[in-house]
Structure formats: structure tokens, C-alpha cells
Amino acid sequence: MPTPTFTSEVRSLLGMMNFCGAHLIPDYATLTYELRRLTQKNTAFKWTERHDEALGFLKSKLKNHITLCYFNPNKDTQVYVDASPVGISAILTQTDEEKPQIVQIASRSLTETEQRYSQTEREALAVTWACEHFHIYLFGAPRFTVYTDRKLLVSLFGSPKIQLPVRIERWVMRTQAYNMAINYKPGKTKTLSMLREKVWFKNMHTAVEQAVKNCFACQVATPTTTREPLQMSDLPQEPWSKLNADFGHLPDGTYLLVVTDEYSRYVVVDTIKSTSARAVIPRFDKIFAEFGIPDELKTDNGPPFNGIDFKTYLEHKGIKHRKITPRWPQANAETERFMRTIKKTIKAAQVEHKNWKQEMFKFLLAYRTTKHSSTGLAPANVLFNRVVKNKLPAAPIQTDPINTWITCNDAAAKAKMKHYADCKSYIKRSDIQIGESVLVKQSDKTKPTTPYEPIPYVVSNKKGSMITAKRHNKSIMRNSRIPRKPFGGITRKPLESLGIPRASLESPLVDLEKHSRNHQI
Questions:
Q1: Which of 105, 209, 351, 373 is the most buried (most CB within 10 A)?
Q2: Are 297 and 374 members of one domain?
Q3: What residues pair up with 183 in beta bridges, in sequence order?
């Protein structure tokens, strides 16, 4: 077959390919993209090596022996879909003696508008297009399965309660006429399928799975999806014994100081201009003068809580300072959740052109005098042991059995939350042990870096869900969900591939911190 020299010859070549091989090549639209670009309007004809490669690959695909079978509505039916930046494809198969048989292959190119879709949207379009293209086989047929390598589509097409983007929602509605189930098929199985078409060797399945699973660069660049089981804190013995504190930013540059009582869920809110110890300590003095000195104060690790002045202040007051795990705000979840709610109140007041401080105080009165979902009683009633009035009429309550009431309701609410959180498929108890190498998430989100640092840390201590890891003379503390233990461990080969000299690896201590500064990835 001679190489085309004019645009008309390329059109003739594509016409022949469409007749001979379009129904036998799964990714035909993607493979012909470079050739089709030569036939576009206002495009100069220029044949390059890239077009030679595309033509050669098409010729080799045409030589592959693919036999199509007849469709049988009584057999299990599967549809495999995929999408590239320039095309979508689908394969209709049926299981015959536990072996898939191809019924039909189809693909089409994407328009200029469709090429600007996100990858998730292109994959969703492939599902809808495949069902409609194979309509003669699938409509009215028994339940069939659609396989995709985009896991998000399982939720988008399978959950009726999820809020969908408008474009994807239209595609999902178009597939409701079909009795289908959508499943996720990871890319590593595609790697194995590709190799089976070309080569075979002993223990190929195990070797491919281990190679994909132990890919060090892939583990550094892929975020983890598992989470630790939810750990619930014990209820304090009395009100105002254990407090949580946190700061929130305001639009005018000031800050909200939010203090929460773990027992009663009573919240104290104040506004300050700075988070320095000089500005924060007088506010705590004011709060303690009104409600008393607590036994324990839980905060994050930011200023001023990490400073010597605040530490000295708490020691002088006799208050135990409990810091949560660094970069794990879920440990102070109750205060963080309340912070989102009160910020929403402030934003709503600004939209309505109202005094946001006055609206915030109205919200605080409503919150403090409304039954809490965990305790079953209003926070103000629990803290002050009396009914705090608001604008609504209320009947007096008996306060004698208040402690038993709160304890029972709190235990039931926490058990319900833990059951709901731990029943998720991604909940998995961490198996990281002391002495193992782990990958730690990078903190700088402004640079195009990988999710994990390529230089590993070594776990030196583990306490509950908090681990301590060291790398040379640097020590960090993280929740056990954040670090990641690589499959297959850390060997010299991946570290040498990062540019660390062999001589440095053989020394007792490798200055990984210095190396990471000199070799940015």
C-alpha cells in the first residue's frame, strides 16, 4: 500500500479502512485520529513520521484474526467501554463456556466540543453511546453488565440519590431504558489482556500483577483511598471539664475563636484581630472568668497553641494541653463542623446586607437552646442545669436524671456514627508497624508535585492511630491513614533511580533531607 501524497488519497484510504476494519479494531477512532486530521478543512497536507506510524499500526491491527459470534439473548452479556481524549470505543461480548466471545466492536471520534470534556465526562459519554449503539441487542434483553476503568462511574450511574452534573445527568437518564449494571475493571487487568494478545510466559498473571502492584513511582503518584476505623472519644464526667478550641478566618481579616465543651456541646464564640498569644490569652481569661477553669484543652498545632507563651499560660492555670495529630483536623471534628455552620450564618447575613455579628449572636442563642442530636438536651440546659429561655415557650424539665440521660444518648449516637463510618468499603485498619518504611503526603499543594514524597520515612513509634516517623534527623507525627506503606517494600533500586548515589546508600545514615532539597522531583 503506497503512502498517500494528497488529501484525497487519505480520504480514500480511510474509506477503505472504514469498510474493512472499523468493526474489527476496538480503538479504531483513536488510531485514525492523526490521519483524519489531514482531511480537515483549511489543513495543509504534510505527511510525517507520526502518520507513518499510525498507518503502520492500522495495518498490523487489520492482520489480527478476530472472529465475531452471533448474539444469543439467553447468554450473559457484557459491554466494555473506554474513552481517549479523541475517541470512544465499545465492545459487546457474551460468555460462552466461561470464555468471552466478541459479538460486535464499535468506536467513534469525538467532536471538538467533546474533546474538551473532562475524562470522567468522556467515560460517561462512552457508556451512554455504547448502550444506544448496541440498542438492537440490549433493549429489552435480560440484565447485562457494563465494564469501565473509571470507578467514579459506578456511583454516577448506580446511585439514584447522588447529585449529578447536568450534562452527565442527561446521559444517565438516556440509559434508564436499559436493564444494566455498571462495574469497575482496573487498568492492571487491561495490562494483562494486552500482553496475552502478544506473548505468553510461565506465571504471567502473577508476574504482571506484582509488577503493577510494586511500581514505586506509581505508589508515590497515587493517593490512598483507605481510612482507619472511626475512633470515638469518651464522654467527660462533668460539664466544662474538657474543651476544644479552634480559629476561623473572617472576610474582614479578623478571626473567630470557637471554644466547645465536649460534655454539654456548649459553644463560646469570640472575635479577635490576631492569633498571637498576646491577643488570645486575654480572651481565654475572659472565658474562664465566666465559666471556670477546665481540666483539659484540646487544640491543633498552629499558633499560638504551639508557642511557649501559651504553654506557660496553661501550666500556670493548671490546664492539661492536648494537641491533636498534625494535619488531621478530624481529631477536632466537632469544633471544625461547628465552624462551617457559623461561617455559613455569617455569609448568609452578608448576602442579606445584615449585621453579621448580630445574626451570629441570634444563631448562638438558637443553637445553645436547641436539643443536641447526641445528648438529646440543649447545651445551655446541660451546662447551667436550668432551662435557658429563648423566644419560644418551653415547659420546665426535670434535671435530676440529666447525667444518665446524656450518657445513654451520647453512647447511642457515637455507636451509630461509628457503625455508619466503619461499614464503608474503604475502611481498613492500618497495618503499619514500627521499623517499616512509609511514604508521606507532600504538604505543598501549590506546586505540581506527586501526592507522596518519593523519599521514604521510617516508623519509630506508634500510639493508637498516631505514628511517629523519622528521616535522618527529621521527625514527624501523622495519623496512620496519611502515610502509605509501599507494596513490596523500599529497595535500593527505586532509591537509586531517584538519583541517590550508591555510596550514600551503603552508609549507615543517608542524609535524605539534604538530598531531597538538592533533587526536587
A1: 105
A2: yes
A3: 147
What is the model's pLDDT at position 313?
96
Mean pLDDT of 386-395: 79
Count of structural domains within the chain? 4
Gap between the Cα atoms of 407 and 211, Å rounded: 52
Structural domain includes residue 470:
yes
Q: How many CB atoms lie within 10 A of CB 310?
A: 20
Let me know whether 254 and 372 are in one domain: yes
For 160-305, where are the E strands, in sequence order?
A: 180-184, 242-249, 255-261, 267-272, 296-299
54 with 125, same domain?
Answer: no
Let me know if residue 211 belongs to a domain: no
**What are the CA-CA distances from residue 188 to residues 195, 215, 221 (Å)?**
11, 12, 16
Half-sphere exposure of 392 (CA within 13 A, CB side): 8
- Both 403 and 499 in one domain: the answer is no
Q: Which of 219, 98, 95, 113 is nearest to 488 (CA)?
A: 219
What number is the average pLDDT over the span 264-282? 93
Same domain assignment for residues 409 and 444: no
The answer to whether the CB of 427 falls within 8 A of the CB of 229 is: yes
SS3 213: helix
Domain boundary among 188, 207, 222: 188
176 and 95, same domain (yes or no): yes
Q: Is 165 found in the same domain as 20? A: no
pLDDT, residue 258, reads 93
In angstroms, rounded to a whole number, what is the distance separating the alpha carbons of residues 494 and 486?
11
Confidence of residue 171 (pLDDT cuts 50, 70, 90): very high
Q: Are residues 415 and 454 in the same domain?
A: no
- 26, 107 in Cβ contact below 8 A? yes
Q: Cell numbers 506527586 label which residue?
A: 450
**Average per-residue pLDDT in the chain?**
82
pLDDT band at 244 (very low <50, low <70, confident <90, very high): very high
In tens, the pLDDT along 347-358 reads: 999 999 999 999
- Classify residue 231: in a domain, yes or no: no
Q: How far apart are the first and last CA of the chain?
A: 46
Domain assignment of residue 42, given as a range: 7-63
Considering 421, 452, 478, which residue would you say is the last residue of a domain? 421
Burial 166-177 (b: 16+ CB within 10 A, else e): eebeebbeebee
Beta partners for 243? 261, 297
Provide the pairing of β-strand 466-471 with 474-479.
antiparallel
Scanning 69-213, the segments in alpha helix (DSSP H) are 119-133, 135-138, 152-158, 166-174, 187-198, 204-213
Asked if the structure places residue 57 within a domain, the reply is yes
Quick one: what percent of the chain has pLDDT higher than 70? Answer: 84
Nearest to 268 by CA among 381, 379, 387: 379
pLDDT at residue 253, as a whole number? 84
Dihedral of CA 114/84/184/141: which sign?
positive
What CATH number corresponds to the domain at position 112?
3.30.420.10
